[in-house]
């Protein structure tokens, strides 16, 4: 699965201690991308991301990877922030799924790309459980940490992460 991740998801995953675990999904045919604008929006998190970029676990897309016309179209259609707009435009151009925890961006991305190409950090954490990178209990604790840190996430029970044996 090829995924472009936005700043909200990256920050939520980092604050919960799950970013490195999620990037471990690269061992299971997940490929994570981040756009130039989103990388800038991550602020201090950039220092944390750099080793994963160097290791190839996170691919940063250069600013010239984005078609300016597609970017302008998405910006005008949905009026989202620059990072969310970049993710959607790059996803369309490069056949990527969008990972965002921003509710408005998720709705716009589903409309623009289709529901099957939109996910959030909770689904990635669930994939970590599915691939035995962490337990359902650890996943739910990470979710609780995200909420405590101010993340706007939908309510989910511990059962959401209990996806059984792979």
Second-tier CATH architecture:
3-Layer(aba) Sandwich
What distance lies between the first and last C-alpha atoms, to the nearest angstrom? 17 Å
Total discrete domains? 1
Overall average residue pLDDT: 94
- The count of helical stretches stands at 9
Radius of gyration: 15 Å
Shape: globular
SSE sequence, one letter per element: EHHEHHEHHEHEHH
Which sheet architecture does the biggest sheet show?
5 strands, parallel
Write down the CATH class: Alpha Beta
Which homologous superfamily in CATH is the superfamily?
A: 5'-nuclease
CATH topological fold name: Rossmann fold
Strand order of the largest sheet: 3-2-1-4-5
Helical percentage? 40-55%
Query: What percentage of amino acids are in beta strands?
Result: 5-15%
Number of strands: 5
Name the poorly predicted regions.
none
Q: What class, by secondary structure content? A: alpha/beta
What does this molecule look like?
- The chain is α/β, with parallel strands linked by helices and 166 residues long.
- The chain has one domain: 5'-nuclease (Rossmann fold, 3-Layer(aba) Sandwich), CATH 3.40.50.
- Helix content is 54%, strand content 11%.
- The chain has nine helices and five strands.
- It has helices at 7-15, 19-23, 36-41, 45-55, 68-78, 82-94, 103-113, 121-130, 136-148, and strands spanning 2-5, 31-35, 58-61, 97-99, 118-119.
- It has a five-stranded parallel β-sheet with strand order 3-2-1-4-5.
- Helix 5 packs across helix 6 and helix 6 (82-94) runs parallel beside helix 7.
- It is globular, with a radius of gyration of 15 Å.
- It starts with a strand and ends in an 18-residue tail after the last helix.
């Amino acid at each position: 699965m090829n995924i472009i991740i936005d700043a909200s998801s990256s920050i939520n995953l980092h604050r919960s201690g799950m970013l490195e675990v999620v990037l471990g999904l690269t061992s299971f045919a997940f490929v994570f991308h981040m756009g130039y604008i989103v990388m800038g929006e991550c602020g201090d998190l950039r220092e944390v991301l750099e080793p994963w970029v160097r290791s190839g676990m996170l691919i940063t897309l250069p600013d010239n990877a984005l078609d300016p016309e597609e970017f302008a179209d998405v910006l005008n259609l949905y009026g989202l922030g620059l990072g969310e707009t970049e993710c959607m435009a790059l996803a369309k151009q490069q056949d990527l799924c969008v990972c965002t925890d921003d509710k408005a961006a998720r709705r716009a991305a589903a409309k623009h790309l289709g529901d099957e190409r939109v996910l959030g950090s909770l689904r990635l954490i669930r994939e970590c459980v599915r691939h035995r990178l962490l337990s359902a209990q650890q996943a739910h604790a990470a979710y609780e940490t995200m909420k405590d840190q101010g993340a706007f996430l939908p309510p989910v029970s511990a059962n959401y992460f209990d996806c059984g044996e792979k």
